[in-house]
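ugh finaly. both done.
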Amino acid sequence: MEESPGAEPVRVLLAEDDPTQRLVVEHLVRNAGYVVETVPDGKSALARILEETFDILITDLDMPGLDGSCLCQRIREASLANYLYILMLTAHTGDKDVAAGLEAGADDFVRKPANPIELLARLKNGSRIVKLQREAYRNSITDALLGVFNRRYLIHQLRCEVWRAHRYQRPLTVLMADLDHFKQINDRYGHSAGDEVLVGFARKTRGLIRASDWFARFGGEEFVIVLPETPLGVAEQVAEKVRRELEAAPFLLASGEHRVTASFGVATLALGSDENSDGVLGKADKALYLSKQRGRNRITVSDDD
């Protein structure tokens, strides 16, 4: 598989209960340049797919417990954020069995024992589809002006972060930020000046958070910063760092120098409860409202934390 320099690798999950076949297919696929992870059954495959993002699933049709057809069906019912291309391996020669797998959600199939040339050709075809899906997906979750995640991505991905935090009992904190008196910039200097401020704020913020943190435009001049594995006290420090940086460094726009500040609301997920993504986001929004009520350019921690 030829990749351009710096290209994102294609991640493959291989579900095969036969150890020998699993090893053979794994080596073949890995040597072709794919990043491969293996699991011995359908149940393990489903768990990994719900935890991590894979591009292609190669699954045996016949596996104990959760077979390939049921696995495909469960995956499609899960409505994953990214499209998972599914390549089915089957020892059956009957068209009825193959049709059942395709109807359950598989994209393609290869008969076992797999011919290496055919398997890699079908895998390459799947990779092309994956890359087209990636591009379309990136466009659908990215704010066109700022190049950061948009609200659609925020709503979906925050649900995933909350699920992981609850499952592994790891802290998750959310910052909601609102640019103070932003309407005045648009009204006085025009929307192009407002756009410059938004772009500058996004650039500054991305430079102040960790690679594991992520940042989304909630709407207008409101933003959400999601901090996985981050307790409340550390999250307050992050918010203060962004607030100070914004306050200290004015924006140099075509219309002149403009000093812009922001207000913040901070909330952490209540572990051990049934709180969901709407709950923690709502707490951060309420705290942000209090910051604005109290004079803006400040940080408020949710009263519920």
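ok and the 2nd:
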Amino acid sequence: MNPKNTMKVQRKIKELILKGLDRESLSPCVIPSLLVPKKDEGMRGCVDSCAINKITVKYIYPIPRINDMLDELLDSKAFSKIDLRGGYYQIRIREGDE
């Protein structure tokens, strides 16, 4: 990369860090991020997450909809964090779950 483009990239990275959109990763898994030139002479950030997607465990059960969860709590008068957390795990996911 020539010095002019290097300065552009460094400015863009500093700008993203100041906005809080970019930060140093503490993850043991590396995800490359690239700055790609746009048609209007600017730069656009791209993230290649193929590697992390390969090692991510897929969740096989669907997450309950918020409407169904609220219907379960319809007649309740008072709530605590324990009630809400416990209620989440008591909603049946599939027919036959007990």
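summary for the 2nd one i guess: The chain has a mean pLDDT of 76.
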